[in-house]
Specification:
With 359 residues, this protein is α/β, with parallel strands linked by helices. Helix content is 41%, strand content 12%. Strands 4-11-10-9-8-7-6-5 form an eight-stranded parallel beta sheet. It has a two-stranded antiparallel ribbon with strand order 1-12.
Length: 359
Amino acid sequence: MTQPINLFEYESLAKEKLSGMAWDYYRSGALDEITLRKNRTVFEQYELYPKMLVDVSNIDLSTNILGQTLSMPLGVAPMAFQCLAHPDGEKATAKVLSDLKTLLILSTLSTTSLEDVAACQSHNLRWFQLYIHRDKGLTKALVERAEKAGYTALCVTVDAPMMGRREADVRNQFTLPSHLQLANLVSLTDLAIPSTIGESGLFAYFQQQIDPSITWKDLEWLQSITNLPIVLKGILRADDAILAVKNGVKGIIISNHGGRQLDGVIASLDALPNIVNAVGDKIDILMDGGIRRGTDIFKALALGAKAVLIGRPILWGLAVNGEAGVNHILQLLKDELILAMALSGCPNIRKINDSFLIK
């Protein structure tokens, strides 16, 4: 097999490797997939505006998030069920990020336990993504396990009080294969993705287990049971970002859940400037949604993000070549970012700003 040379080639190869149900689950967005497409096309609206005759012989990619140093402004977003793509799943992803010294965010709905994932890493550049369940005891137990296993932040997903309608999953009546399980939850309450007639099993799980009544007051409860910093994933409005700062949140991830929740919602990149203008110097801002090239990363950094996260491409890498595939995906993006910085005349990511863009 000829090695893919970009993320789009990985995606094409992954479709050939994955089962129809797994491919549809990973690839699809909500309803008409308007937001899923917009997350990509929005990057084309920004043109790069490079400076010339700048010394770019040394490119510095390092950044600091929540007091921790990352080797590059690129990490991996929380994604459920990575063992659907490859038997090594979350372990493979964790090992690569450990080697690269950058950020992993592990999903509550991982198919490998948070403890086993932590054991794969030689550093603690890892956060635990948290869904707040109706059972607060279960939620508290997850928090305590994450603290004990050395996770350094809680990443609370706030854009999923109910699950978006993903019609491919409804059509497939999506559920996990019998050899996979919700590794973080089975040991607590034997929770599982139900098999349902004419519906997505994951949709049914959310309806049964995830608490739709969560408000800002619940953050006070969460802060009362942990010393870990809290990051909110799913913020799209400046006024919500301001409230996050007022409520003691340490970071936000501008995200529309990869176009998988509310269809027709604003693209993450379009949401970024207003939020940066409102709270940019008070809180660490990350972004996900549609990143497929190093130039995409450059544009997000120029608009004020401190780092970006990728999701689906990691799954394509897993499906095609396991751990080596994940490593190659991240290396491709890293190399493309270095090239974009060099050709733009900006050797240090802390110097990237909106003067390098025209819209």
